[in-house]
Amino acid sequence: MPSTRDIRRRIKSVKNTAQITKAMEKVASAKMRKAQQAALAGRPYVDLMNGMLAAATASAGEFTHPLMEQRPVKKRAVIVVSTDKGLCGSLNTNLLREAGRFDAESSLFLTAGRKSEQWTARAKRTVAERFTYRDNPKFSEAMAICRKACELFTSGEVDQVDIVFTNFISTLNQKPLVRQLLPIIELKPLSASVKDEESTASVPESKVSEFQFEPTATDVLGSLLPKYVNYQIYQVLLEAKASEHSSRMVAMKNATDNAKQLVKDLTLEYNKIRQANITKELLEITSAAMAMGN
């Protein structure tokens, strides 16, 4: 049985841990609001761009582009967007489980985030390039990832590019998703919520005629496709950061609540042991007094 001194030390240690997790919860909460606003604000632009490209595709007729070239998949590139730090619940575990389903022999990995970089090293996966991105993702960071992915695809080094990321649904719900990035087959927003996850951003035929392209739909489509891929990756980075801070805030809140409950349990145990020791001492004094009286 632990002594009262050991329990007091443990109570003090747990209280200190609770203070740390509480502070981390507040920091994550402040970052979470900004990240969520950025992710939600970017979705209408993605949907609008998808609608514009769908209309341009319908007007372009037989249009071909290097980013739309379909060929048998012998080698694929996988972009894994993870976090840099831990303490965010099962977010990275679920994400890397999805990434681990790709065949190691026929897959080439591009990592964004320190956790995915560490995972590829442990799993001995082939890494084409490693990228970093900040708490407030910059468009230039997405552009660097896009440039490398497009280079691998257009050069024929890989036949398909997939992206693995955590889609932000709500503060309590984040879902790891795998989406095909290249070749571009259907204009489906990577940042779609669960509600419209299976929907595509197509434009009804009755509305296609409302769009007029200058100079031509073919020229517009050829110019927009690289930007489309670039912005999809940028939106993925925003979704990943919103998911990270949301998951970390919830994890730190749960840790704080568990620490408080543990303090209560330890305090109860401490009082029981203390009371038992007092009772034992009283019995010893009573027994000694009775012995002396005899």
Task: Characterize the structure shown.
A five-stranded mixed sheet has the order 3-2-1-4-5, with helices on both faces. The protein has 294 residues and is an alpha/beta fold. The chain starts with a helix and ends with a helix. The relative contact order is 0.19. Helices cover 59% and strands 13% of the residues. The chain has helices spanning 4-60, 91-99, 114-123, 139-154, 205-208, 217-293; strands spanning 76-81, 107-112, 127-131, 160-170, 173-182. Residues 191-209 have low confidence and may be disordered. The protein folds into two domains: 4-25 and 250-293, Orthogonal Bundle (Helix Hairpins), CATH 1.10.287.80; 41-247, Pyruvate Kinase, Chain: A, domain 1.
Descriptors for this entry?
294 residues; alpha/beta; 59% helix; 2 domains; 5-stranded mixed β-sheet; Helix Hairpins; 5 strands
How would the blueprint of this fold be written?
Blueprint: H1 4-60, E1 76-81, H2 91-99, E2 107-112, H3 114-123, E3 127-131, H4 139-154, E4 160-170, E5 173-182, H5 205-208, H6 217-293
Parallel strand pairs: 1-2, 1-4, 2-3
Antiparallel strand pairs: 4-5
Helix pairs in contact: 1-6, 4-6
Short synopsis of the structure:
With 294 residues, the chain is α/β, with parallel strands linked by helices. Helix content is 59%, strand content 13%.
Backbone CA Rg:
28 Å
- Any idea of the CATH class of the largest domain? Alpha Beta
Shape: elongated
Write down the secondary-structure element order: HEHEHEHEEHH
CATH topology of the largest domain: Pyruvate Kinase, Chain: A, domain 1
Give the biggest beta sheet: 5 strands, mixed
Q: CATH homologous superfamily name of the largest domain?
A: ATP synthase, F1 complex, gamma subunit
Would you tell me the structural class of the helices and strands?
A: alpha/beta
- Which whole number gives the mean pLDDT? 84
Whole-number tally of structural domains: 2
